[in-house]
């Protein structure tokens, strides 16, 4: 029996788990960050970033498809040897730990700025870690099922941002490419962080029921993320003037403020409350990756020791209350690390595996002769 049989996930869960990991912190700040670099042409950078992400995503799927029954660690050790493979896995674990730390502190800053300014950081972290532990201890199927539930639960959030667009001015988007291609291309590096999460295909692929659909699934996940980013970015560009949008830290939340109902005045508070679920679907897969790969690295099945990371986050938040600048620094570190770990490594590793396989085949053929 396949060792992943009892933990298999459907194609829909695979798609939404990757999409949920991508849709997280960047959705709040992306329009302003792009406007500072490429102006209102930043939406073109999103499309280019999606194309680059899709290429690397397909490299990951192609790598995993070479040995569908292998986990990421098994694939690394198969081609790199025991010690080099484990060293690379340690780098990936550190990368994922940085990712979940960044997402957690971004969540804290947003919550304390928009809704709970007097609530201690450690208390908020403790409240976040309890459900996180329940989900990741349930295994990959629970993680993927949770992402599926959150997707349908928050499906209306982007649609709410369409309401203020009755007062928008689409002329702000014109002329297209007003500053040429260079600002647009330079802004692509800003979109790199926004599409992070596709690398979780390394984690979810072995558990996918229909592995032949993995490539299609990850392309669909990237396109879903692209559509959400385009809708929110274009909406912010059309509602705020080109100079005004750069003055906001979280333009997506500011766009919600004009929305009012007779029974609800501060719509942004309600929006942030639901947005916590999106933050969780970004952070939980990275947290599960860390705990799961640590267990595999130490060859201890269902090892509980990595779960000590959760209370450790609570302890750290007791002594460290991050500012917006602190979070920005963490995001910079995450971004620079992702260039090498997430974007460069799968492509280089694919070339290495292809060359290694070709060399080994020729060696066997020479011996046969």
From TrEMBL:
Give compartment(s).
Answer: Membrane
Which parts of the chain span the membrane according to its record? 12-30, 42-65, 86-114, 120-136, 143-164, 184-205, 217-240, 269-291, 303-321, 333-353
Q: How does it sit in the membrane?
A: Multi-pass membrane protein
Under the heading InterPro entries, the entry gives: Spore_GerAB (IPR004761)
Query: Which UniProt keywords are listed?
Result: Germination, Membrane, Transmembrane, Transmembrane helix, Transport
Family (UniProt): Belongs to the amino acid-polyamine-organocation (APC) superfamily. Spore germination protein (SGP) (TC 2.A.3.9) family.
Q: Which PANTHER family match?
A: SPORE GERMINATION PROTEIN A2
Q: NCBIfam families per the record?
A: 2A0309
The entry's protein name is: Endospore germination permease
